[in-house]
Amino acid sequence: MRGVVVNALTTTALQAEQRDSIRQIFGDLVWEPAIKSRTTLAEANTDMLPLTDIRTTEPRAMYELLGQSFLKAVLVSAYA
Questions:
Q1: What is the rounded CA–CA span in Å between residue 55 and residue 43?
Q2: CA separation for the pair 61, 40 (Å, rounded)
């Protein structure tokens, strides 16, 4: 296993506890950022909006950061 992705995260106390539990269990394997629960991307698809639309900026940035975490994990394990 290369990493753990926390996704569909909402801003509730229960979700925060679950996220913290995941971090306690998996430690450094938890990748950042956690992916928030958002309808923006689904709405972009339904509304036929390009992913360059202003409403998709934040989710796109989160996935780009997650991609960087993945590449870092793969490269570190390749040279270990």
A1: 10
A2: 13
Domain range enclosing 61: 13-78
Average pLDDT for residues 14-38, to the nearest whole number? Answer: 87
| Type of residue numbered 32 | E
Structural domains in the chain (count): 1
Whether 4 is covered by a domain: the verdict is no
- Cα gap 55→39, rounded to integer Å: 10
Question: How far apart (Å, rounded) are the C-alpha atoms in residues 29 and 1?
Answer: 8
With respect to residue 63, please indicate whether it lies within any of the assigned structural domains. Answer: yes
- pLDDT category, 21, cuts 50, 70, 90? very high
